[in-house]
Amino acid sequence: TLERLHDALLKSPLSAVKAKYRRAQCRSGMYPPKGPTFKGAVTWYTVNLDLPPAKRWTDVMSDKKDDVSVSSRGKSRHDGLFSEFGVSACLGQPLLLDTLPFPFNEEIRGISAASGVPLGEVLLFNIFYEVFTACTSVVAEDSNGHLFHARNLDFGLFMGWDVRNKSWLMTEKLRPLVVNVDFQRNNKTVFKSTSFAGYVGMLTGIHPHAFTLTMNERFSLDGGYIGIMEWILGKRDGMWMSFLTRSVLENATSYEEAKQKLSQTKLLAPAYFILGGNQTGQGCVITRSRVLSLDIWELDRTLGRWYVLETNYDHWKEPLFLDDRRTPAMKCMNQTTRANISPKTLYDVLSTKPVLNKLTTYTTLMDVSEGRLESYIRDCPDPCMPW
């Protein structure tokens, strides 16, 4: 039966389209961003870490509260996804917020107060990404030992398909929420991040001149739902993924310190942490279960490994053939070559279908030595893969 199912999937129209994209030409000349795949640059905001946590996001929310309200209502329509696991009612209760670590719990309260969105919905918005994110991240080193880090953030799979616009409903709602945030203390930058307004965790960020960090979801049966349920039932020895990345970006001062924290901290959900440093050879993908670091895949000049690239599958296994973004991305990286790698050519790689797909909300480019983070809101006009 499994063999027949596999054969049927291989013969499906979607499989044929995927195969076509694997043979497709890599994009070039896409940077600076332009054309129908470019929906706009991302606005910068400052979050003052010297303020009380409940006041830190007031300026962001004053600009984005209408968009946050729409997105929040969109999410609440999909409570059934959570109620299947018996947690929907709990997630809507502000009492759960009291169990979250400081200062994240107070920042969530402040966002609710500033936006007018019910506290339970802001809470749901902030834990949603523990279980529903798909991405492509890459750290690459050029011939001079200069390190770059880039990513596509894909979100919204199975969250409702807009037949008329041929797009994912949640992806459409999230694009207006994309923001760049400069987190400052004593009027000096601590770290920078690309995030969503109303979301206090971090999925993409740079600690200037020290390290860069992105997080990708890792699909596993021992996944985020189990960790969330354990937390609700009182077992709270793990850390929320996006709270850990935020803490690392804010408090770690070196690549090695960041790697140690990302490798050893117990988590609520499995994940891939893609980490870049500021010295030659400092780049890795940390493959995590909820409890253990299963593998640390690092740049290695002796092996000719000048980049590491992660989507949502263990690098030592073949990706699901219906969701193979790895093969075209690596094909384009190899065609680019180490001598020509740069933020410009990384943007080309991340603009190649299906690396760029209907779920892609933004593309971020980071240069650790220059302390630069730049992000662009994306779209993928037809013909384009749903994921």
UniProtKB/TrEMBL annotation:
GO BP field: fatty acid metabolic process; sphingolipid metabolic process
Single GO MF annotation: N-acylsphingosine amidohydrolase activity
Presence of keyword Transcription: no
Keyword Glycoprotein listed: yes
Annotated Pfam families: CBAH, NAAA-beta
Signal peptide: none
This protein's pathway: Lipid metabolism; sphingolipid metabolism; Sphingolipid metabolism
Recorded catalytic activity of this chain's protein: an N-acylsphing-4-enine + H2O = sphing-4-enine + a fatty acid
EC number: 3.5.1.23
Active-site annotation: 135
Cellular component, GO, one term: membrane
Protein name, per record: Acid ceramidase
Keywords: Disulfide bond, Glycoprotein, Hydrolase, Lipid metabolism, Lysosome, Secreted, Signal, Sphingolipid metabolism
Annotated Choloylglycine hydrolase/NAAA C-terminal domain residues: 135-372
Organism for this UniProt entry: Scleropages formosus (Asian bonytongue)
Homology family: Belongs to the acid ceramidase family.
Residues of the Acid ceramidase N-terminal domain: 41-68
Localization terms from the record: Lysosome; Secreted
Enzyme class name: hydrolase
